[in-house]
Specification:
The complex is a heterodimer of chains A (324) and B (176). With 324 residues, chain A is α+β, with helices and mostly antiparallel strands. Chain A is built from 12 helices and 12 strands. In chain A, the strands form 3 sheets. Chain A has a 5-stranded antiparallel β-sheet. In chain A, strands 9-10-11-12 form a 4-stranded antiparallel β-sheet, with helices on both faces. The chains are: A alpha+beta (324), B alpha+beta (176). Strand 1 of chain A pairs antiparallel with strand 1 of chain B, so a sheet runs across the interface. Bound molecules: flavin-adenine dinucleotide (FAD), iron/sulfur cluster and FE2/S2 (inorganic) cluster (2 copies).
Chain lengths: 324, 176
C-alpha cells in the first residue's frame, strides 16, 4: 500500500465534504478497499473512515415501518439478528453465505453494496481495462469463466454482492446523500450498467454515500429463499445466486420477486419469470417455465456457458422449494 | 460538473499521517503505544512493532485466515484491518492464551488430537475456536465447521481440528 492520510469522519456532512476532494476514498470495514489499495489499483491521498459514524450502526424494526439498517451494520450482525432471520430470512441467508466469519465481522452493509467487481483483469494493476478508464475489455475474448451472461455491454464483470439480490427481492430502498443529493431511491436504481461517461457499477459519484437501507414489512404469507452456487462451501463469491421472495394464497402465487446474482453487471431482476408465476397455481411445470424465462436472451462468453444452465436450475429449485 | 473544493467548516477534523502517528493497542490485556503510519495493517503492527509473530502473514489479502486475531472478542483478519483504526481497542492473539507457562485448554486439545501438520494455520484456527467457545460452550460439529470456515488449512487437518475443538469444549466445561 502506498502511504495516505487518515481522517475519522466526525459526522455525515463533514464526511461528504471531505470525500468530494480529489484522491479521497471512504473506508468502512476495509475488506474490499484494502484489497484494492494493496494491489495498487488506486492510491488515494486520504482515507475517510466512516466507522466513527456511530449512528449508522443500528438495526431497527417495527411491524409498520419495516426494517432499517444503518450502512455500517456488519454482515455478521445481519446474519445473526433474530428478526431478520425470522421475517427477512433471505437477507440473513445471503449475509451468512458471504465470505467468511472473519470478513463478516469486519465487512459492512454499505461496503458490501458498493464493493468493486472481482474481475481478475480489474483486480490486476497491469490491465488498464475499460472499466478503469482504458479502451478495451480484456475479459470479452479472454479468461471469462466468472463473467456475465446477461445484459452486458462494454464491461462483462458481474456485481459480486450477495446482499444486493436479496435486498432487491425484498423491495429495499436506500437513503443516499452527497454534496447535491439527499434522497431515497430503490436499491435496484442504485445499480447502473457502466457507461462511457460513468464507468462505475453504481450511480453514486464522488462524495456520495449510502446512509441507510430500508426494507418494507414482509407481505402476507411471504416466504423466500436465497440459493448460491459456489466453488466451495465457504469463501466464494457466487458463480450464480438467486433470491426469490414469494407470497402464496393456498397454491396460488400472489406475488413473486426474483433477482439473480453473478450473471450481470447489475443484480439481475428476472421480471419475465415473475410475470409467469404471479396469479398462477404452482406446479413444477410452471417453475420450469419461469426458470427458462430467467435466462432469456443470455449471451454467454467462451468459458461461462455453464452459468446459463446453472441459473436456470437454481431458479427452478428455489421456486419449487418455496411452493411445496 | 464543476465542484468547488469545499473545505469542511466548523467541525474539527483530525488528519493523521501520512507519517507516523501514535496509536494505543490493548493486546492480551497489556496496553501498548506504537508509532505507525496509517497504512500499517494491524498484522504488521503486531508482528513488526510488538514482536508478536503468532498471527501469521500468509496471503496478506483476506484469503487464508492465518492472521486471525480477536478484536473486541470477535475474530477478524489482522491483515485487512488498519492498526490506526484499532486505536484503544482490545485485541487477543495466540500469545495471550497460555497463562503462567500453562497452555490453554484449546491448545492442549490441539496437541492431544494432533490437530496440525505444518502448524502454519494453527494460531488462526485456535483463535477462531476460542471465539466460538467464548460464546457457545456447547457447540455442535456444524458450529465448529462454521467457526473455522474462514481458516484455510492446506495440510487438510480439518477432521482433527474439528475433534480438537469439540474436545476443548469438553475440557473447558469440565474445568469451569
Ligand atoms: C476473500 C474475500 C471474499 C469475499 N467474499 C464475498 C462474498 O462471498 N460475497 C460478498 O457479497 N462479498 C464478498 N466479499 C466482499 C467483502 O469485501 C464485502 O462483503 C464487504 O461487505 C465489504 O464491506 P466493507 O465495509 O469491508 O467495505 P469497504 O472495503 O470498506 O468498502 C468497499 C467500497 O465501498 C465504499 N463504501 C463503503 N461504505 C460505503 C457507504 N456507506 N456508501 C458508499 N460507499 C461506501 C468504499 O469507498 C469502497 O470503495 C469478499 C471479500 C474478500 C476479501
Ligand atoms: S469485464 Fe469489466 S472489469 Fe473486467 S476487464 Fe472487462 S471492462 Fe474491465
Ligand atoms: S494473511 Fe490475513 S487472511 Fe491471509
Ligand atoms: S496444519 Fe498446515 S496449514 Fe494447517
Amino acid at each position: 500500500m502506498r502511504s495516505f492520510e487518515h481522517v475519522n469522519a466526525p459526522d455525515i456532512k463533514t464526511a461528504i465534504a471531505l470525500l468530494r476532494e480529489p484522491a479521497t476514498e471512504a473506508i468502512a470495514g476495509g475488506t474490499d478497499l484494502l484489497g484494492e489499495l494493496k494491489a495498487r489499483l488506486r492510491s488515494p491521498r486520504r482515507l475517510v473512515n466512516l466507522k466513527t459514524l456511530s449512528n449508522l450502526r443500528e438495526i431497527r424494526y417495527s411491524p409498520k415501518a419495516g426494517l432499517r439498517l444503518g450502512a455500517l451494520v456488519t454482515l455478521a450482525e445481519i446474519e445473526r439478528h433474530p428478526i431478520i432471520r425470522e421475517r427477512f430470512s433471505i437477507l440473513a441467508q445471503a449475509a451468512a453465505s458471504a465470505a467468511t466469519p472473519q470478513l463478516r465481522n469486519m465487512g459492512t452493509l454499505g461496503g458490501n453494496l458498493c464493493q468493486k467487481p472481482r474481475c481478475w483483469y480489474y483486480r490486476h494493476r497491469l490491465f488498464h481495462c475499460w472499466l478503469k478508464g482504458g479502451d478495451r475489455c480484456f475479459a470479452e475474448d479472454g479468461e471469462n469463466k466468472y463473467h456475465a451472461i446477461l445484459g452486458a455491454d462494454r464491461c462483462h464483470a458481474v456485481h459480486p454482492s450477495d446482499l444486493a439480490p436479496a435486498l432487491i427481492a425484498l423491495e429495499a430502498t436506500v437513503r443516499v446523500v452527497g454534496p447535491d443529493l439527499d434522497g431515497e431511491i430503490s436499491l435496484a436504481e442504485l445499480y447502473t450498467k457502466p457507461t462511457e461517461s460513468h464507468r462505475r457499477m453504481t450511480m453514486l459519484g464522488p462524495g456520495e454515500l449510502i446512509i441507510e437501507v430500508r426494507v418494507p414489512p414482509p407481505k402476507k404469507n411471504a416466504r423466500g429463499v436465497y440459493l448460491k452456487a459456489m466453488e466451495r462451501g465457504s469463501w466464494s463469491f457466487a458463480l450464480v445466486s438467486v433470491a426469490v421472495q414469494m407470497s402464496l394464497e393456498g397454491k396460488r402465487i400472489a406475488d413473486a420477486r426474483i433477482v439473480l446474482g453473478g450473471v450481470s453487471t447489475i443484480p439481475w431482476r428476472a421480471k419475465g419469470s415473475e410475470s409467469i408465476l404471479i396469479g398462477q397455481e404452482f406446479s413444477m411445470e410452471l417453475a420450469e417455465r419461469a426458470a427458462e424465462a430467467a435466462i432469456a436472451g443470455a449471451q454467454p462468453l467462451r468459458d461461462n456457458a455453464y452459468k446459463v444452465s446453472l441459473a436456470k436450475s437454481l431458479v427452478k429449485e428455489a421456486v419449487g422449494s418455496l411452493a411445496s | 460538473m464543476v465542484t468547488k473544493a469545499a473545505r469542511p467548516r466548523k467541525r474539527k477534523i483530525v488528519v493523521r499521517g501520512p507519517g507516523k502517528t501514535s496509536v494505543t493497542l490493548i493486546v492480551n490485556g497489556e496496553t501498548h503505544e506504537v508509532l505507525v503510519e496509517p497504512r500499517r495493517t494491524l498484522l504488521d503492527a503486531l508482528r513488526k512493532d510488538l514482536g508478536l509473530t503468532g498471527a501469521k502473514k500468509a496471503c496478506d489479502e483476506g484469503t487464508c485466515g492465518a492472521c486471525t486475531v480477536l478484536l473486541e472478542g470477535k475474530p477478524i483478519y489482522a491483515c485487512m484491518a488498519l492498526a490506526l483504526e484499532c486505536d484503544g481497542r482490545t485485541i487477543e492473539t495466540i500469545e495471550g492464551l497460555a497463562r503462567d507457562a500453562k497452555l490453554h485448554p484449546i491448545q492442549e486439545a490441539f496437541i492431544e488430537e494432533d490437530a496440525l501438520q505444518c502448524g502454519f494455520c494453527t494460531p488462526g484456527q485456535i483463535m477462531s475456536v476460542k471465539a466460538l467457545l467464548d460464546e457457545n460452550p456447547h457447540p455442535t460439529l456444524e458450529d465448529v465447521k462454521r467457526a473455522v470456515s474462514g481458516n484455510l488449512c492446506r495440510c487438510g487437518a480439518y477432521p482433527k481440528i474439528f475433534k480438537a475443538a469439540l474436545r476443548a469444549a469438553e475440557l473447558l466445561r469440565s474445568r469451569s
